Amino acid sequence: MTVSTQQRLEMLRTMLLARRFEETLTELCQQPDKIHGMMILATGQEAVGSGACAALSPADVIVTNHRSHHHLLARGADPKALMAEIFGRRTGCNKGKSGTLHLAVPEVNALCTTTVVGGGFPIATGLGFAQQYRGETAVTACFFGDGATSEGSFHEALNLAGLWRLPVVFVCENNRYAAAQGYDEHTPIESLATRADAYGMPGEQVDGNDAPAVFEVTRRARERALAGEGPTLIECMTYRWRGHGEGDPQRYQPAEEIAAWKARCPIERLSETLRARGELSDAELDDLRASTAAVVAEAVRFAEESPWPEPREALDDVWVA
Amino acid sequence: MSGSREGEMTMQTLGMGQAVNQALREEMARDSRIFLAGEGIGVGIHDSPMMPTAGLLEAFGPGRVKDTPVSEAAIAGLAVGAAAGGLRPVVEVMFNPFFTLASDMIINHAAKLRYLSGGKTRFPLVVRIKSGAGFGAGCQHSHNLEAWVAHCPGLKVVMPATPADAKGLLKSAIRDDNPVIFIEDMGLYFAPDAVPEDDYTIPIGKADIKRAGTDVTVVTWSKMLGVAMQAAEQLAGEGVDVEVVDLRTLTPLDSETILASVRKTGRLVVLHEATRTGGFAGEVAAVVMEQAFTDLKAPLRRVTGPDIPVPASPPLEQFYIPDAGQVVAAIREIV
Ligand SMILES: Cc1ncc(C[n+]2csc(CCOP(=O)(O)OP(=O)(O)O)c2C)c(N)n1
Ligand SMILES: [Mg+2]
């Protein structure tokens, strides 16, 4: 199967949306008192969220982490509800309980988002187990960073998923850093995909800045999972353009390295491909940029005009009534 | 530090992170068995000199300041094994909730292996944990778990409220032959205060009366000391004289200082940022009820975080964190 034009255009749209969403957050973080708490962005990594999510069906579940905006937007989460949550407003998707770090959006089957590094692996295993148990035609995609594979939970969960042939697609977003630590400083092997061998599943490395390539490999992994053949580990090679969070001066990221990866922008790349194939005109690209920008502007307006939660609402939502 | 000693010493102004940094530097210079390990303690994403491990990699090199992968269980286990092997590890847990990932090594091992050996082994290690609410990150970064570790025999639990105490207590923790959990509220990193320049220790297991008073005792620790002092100031204007006891160490608990204060004032409020149910205020209250019941002139009160995870949105998080108004109200109920 090949990737259709419509699928390519949709990936381009979700990447443009995520890029604009996060560039706007960068700007907002530079204004006093707009955004509270940490701000962790995936600028430059959009092809992973867009490519992988394009290969999923609405019934599939995703598990994401602290760097989730691009996954959730690609999954179709409401940008207004996300932005309002990031602003801490009552209209946010989690009523201000979460902020940016653990955005749960059950409406798009993003049921369990965790900012505890490595927390997602065993949960994804459980979600996959539930899908297998109930005989569902659905898989779980688990997004995580290169650094997360250093947690014990990675090894326990992948072993179990491999053993029980659970329908889980483990999508590693190898952006070459775990906070300030370079890949070589936290992992002694060249490719994380090779770890799949140890857990009885295939491991595939893919260019993580090539959305259609991420799409293809995710689609294959999903088909394997649905056929009862178990999980796959996908390693998407990409790069974090910004610091770990906003406000990180990035002293440990060489300027030439950042520049080299910016030259491999996943958005430029896909729009070039589409143009070369005659599937996208300059005017259409301008339209896409304008329409995604308008969506983000509307999300910011909505967030800024939304009320704060009442203090006592902090007491709500601990328990199922 | 007691007020009287301060007068004789040369003072410097430091945040708690800087005071911790100074203690680490001085102890590492003194004892080559001490090494540090943790996530981002050498090369980090923060540039601020207010952070506790700033500059230590440069000063002591990568052999003694170990940046680790994101592997809390391995960090904690490294400390347990290295301590058994004759070193004196000081490891860092980046945020208190991530201690749960390290907890098997600390609770099932560091705290128990000596006992299991019939007293033949020892585990001189320190786990520094950064804690506290108030920075908008939500409950997976802010969750004060001191009562969990205090509930575990074999661990000492230290929670300083001032930079001067942090420096002296950390030195004691490092020199202690037992596992010590040393919890630093990150809000205090940015609240500079006077710290003696000398090499001094403060004993683990000794509370400190930060404000003498006669009408009511407030027992607290860590960042909530500031809240207690604010409440005391406010009530002083109304003629209520508050005594503020800073526990500094949760286990071993300085019952003597608590009981002496309550016997004098006849009233008790216990204040902490952690959630209420099962919180350490209950332990302090139980000690007082068992040993000073007849000295109480009124029921004791607890002022704590409510029984909810710490929410991220500013008005919700503010609602969570106990403030001076709540302490004043609790005191007014019983005086
Ligand atoms: C258990 C745990 N330890 C430490 C942290 C602090 N932390 C947050 S993100 C991060 C780095 C994670 O790196 P990686 O998995 O590569 O994801 P990336 O941030 O690069 O997307 C760290 C150490 C955490 N959130 N959870
Ligand atoms: Mg990474």
UniProtKB/TrEMBL annotation, chain A:
CDD domains: TPP_E1_PDC_ADC_BCADC (cd02000). Its cofactor is thiamine diphosphate. InterPro entries: DH_E1, PDH_E1_Alpha_Subunit, THDP-binding. It comes from the Bacteria. Residues 14-311 form the Dehydrogenase E1 component domain. It holds the Pfam family E1_dh. SUPFAM superfamilies: Thiamin diphosphate-binding fold (THDP-binding) (SSF52518). The keyword Oxidoreductase applies. Keywords: Oxidoreductase, Thiamine pyrophosphate. Signal peptide: none annotated. This is Thiamine pyrophosphate-dependent dehydrogenase E1 component subunit alpha. It comes from Marichromatium bheemlicum.
